[in-house]
Design a protein that fits this description.
Sulphur_relay_TusC/DsrF, Sulphur_relay_DsrE/F-like, DsrEFH-like, 125 residues, Sulfurtransferase complex subunit TusC, alpha/beta, 21% strand, 4 helices
């Protein structure tokens, strides 16, 4: 699976945690927004339980934890348009493109290696 040339850039943020239960996912999204605000080309890779963040109609979590839908809606305003999703994780959770809030390019293990090599910096949350 080859990646489009728009996948190369300054920063790749890998989101591996679910939207609720910890602040890792929200912190990763915040880092991506801040980097983009400072002019960096940012790509996001949703892996493992991080793919759950893309589910439509995210609700608040236990104890009032915020959902991620509003933050995801802001990505385009910050020119964060290179979104990738781990195909294996999608299959593991039984998710399909029509269940996702935003369109993301499905990537396999080989394409993920390529993504890592195409970015100057990689942060994992």
């Amino acid at each position: 699976m080859s990646l489009p040339s728009s996948g190369s850039g300054d920063l790749l943020v890998i989101l591996r945690h679910p939207p609720h239960g910890s602040s890792w996912l929200r912190e990763g999204l915040d880092v991506a927004l801040v980097a983009a605000a400072f002019g960096q080309a940012v790509s996001l890779l949703f892996q493992d339980e991080g793919v759950l963040a893309l589910l439509k109609e995210q609700q608040a979590g236990p104890l009032g934890q915020k959902g991620t839908a509003a933050t995801l809606d802001m990505l385009a305003m910050y020119d964060i348009e290179s979104l990738y999703i781990d195909a294996e994780a999608l299959n593991r959770f039984g998710l399909h493109a029509d269940t996702l809030q935003l369109p993301a390019t499905r990537v396999d293990a080989e394409a993920i290696k390529s993504l890592l090599n195409q970015h100057q910096q990689v942060l994992t949350f």
